[in-house]
Prior knowledge:
Blueprint: H1 3-11, E1 15-18, H2 20-27, E2 32-34, E3 38-40, E4 49-53, E5 59-65, E6 71-77, H3 84-102, E7 108-113, E8 122-127, E9 130-135, H4 138-141, H5 143-157, E10 161-164, H6 168-173, E11 182-186, E12 190-195, E13 203-208, H7 222-231, E14 233-239, H8 245-252, E15 257-265, H9 268-280, E16 286-289, H10 292-301, E17 306-311, H11 323-340, E18 341-351, H12 358-372, E19 375-382, E20 401-408
Parallel strand pairs: 1-4, 9-10, 14-15, 14-17, 15-16, 17-18
Antiparallel strand pairs: 1-3, 2-6, 4-5, 5-6, 7-8, 8-9, 10-11, 12-13, 18-20, 19-20
Helix pairs in contact: 3-5, 7-8, 10-11, 11-12
This protein binds S-adenosyl-L-homocysteine (SAH).
Amino acid sequence: xxxxxxxxxxxxxxxxxxxxxxxxxxxxxxxxxxxxxxxxxxxxxxxxxxxxxxxxxxxxxxxxxxxxxxxxxxxxxxxxxxxxxxxxxxxxxxxxxxxxxxxxxxxxxxxxxxxxxxxxxxxxxxxxxxxxxxxxxxxxxxxxxxxxxxxxxxxxxxxxxxxxxxxxxxxxxxxxxxxxxxxxxxxxxxxxxxxxxxxxxxxxxxxxxxxxxxxxxxxxxxxxxxxxxxxxxxxxxxxxxxxxxxxxxxxxxxxxxxxxxxxxxxxxxxxxxxxxxxxxxxxxxxxxxxxxxxxxxxxxxxxxxxxxxxxxxxxxxxxxxxxxxxxxxxxxxxxxxxxxxxxxxxxxxxxxxxxxxxxxxxxxxxxxxxxxxxxxxxxxxxxxxxxxxxxxxxxxxxxxxxxxxxxxx
Length: 409
Ligand code: SAH
């Protein structure tokens, strides 16, 4: 192709102009700019790589464009990006190197966490020799980017299988064609993984990338499982146990001192998997299928007592509007649990609602303690495991609270 044509094609790279507020967000190092802060955009194809300009046309960096999301652009670089697939490959290698520094004793963890690894719209989880990936934006869905992702993961990690887990709602929001979940590469989509112990020790779990619930496992709680096991003792109850993450650690982790562990969840398939997981570790535990709110109420009325209770409910506040109601839910659960704990008992209480911030959560737990006539000592205030990095300028990356409390009469 003649040089001139190439140069003019380069010049044609689409650009967006931002309002002053949009510019301020980028200067604060938040990677998202909302559509309402874009003042100029013309015929930009979905998922394009765009040059970002201020009102006077000054170049601010490069972003990934979405034609449908309210988040119109997500910054990918503060310089120019001549080759997006190559940059994605480089960032994936960096994310893998970061995990090598920070994760030990486990073969399941989040390898790439979207904005927190400077790869907006890409999530990769490792479950031993099976990798799962989630593609959440138009730009990451482009064929050349997908190819770069697969190549890099194969080359760097040599997995036995790579599974794509699709959230149909997200593809619809991004106006991407529907796609089934499935194996993208290799032959293996199910495996066993282990957490919090040197090979071959650690707590073991089954993983099936194609079956089960959309979420896979709650990898963000990995370090909290081990921390909870350090303090747990006596009779323990894991409400909202899912496939047994906390319960199994309370029963099996070398630090754990529990005499009995009961897991509660409203989902039968989750409990069936929890039971299989217990067996994989050579143990039988008690699993109860129930609504945890009702069960705690019943047990409290019947004067049941525990020494350790874990509360890890689903996100009660999915949007800002739900916050009041969510706080009510957290208060009720924590109040009931505190009343059921023996003096000196341990309460492990979590919130994964981003819209309920750390201060709100501490306040609601403190209010519950007041109503329960208990005093709380904070043993640890924790967040997500280190493989789910928090970007300090991006509040959305900090969503998980995990308080370990010592509860006194
Ligand atoms: N602690 C788990 C994750 C819990 S996720 C882990 O670390 O793996 C939240 C769980 O709450 C899900 O398994 C869901 O099935 C369950 N759940 C939702 N509402 C419930 C209710 N009212 N009572 C009991 N379980 C509920």
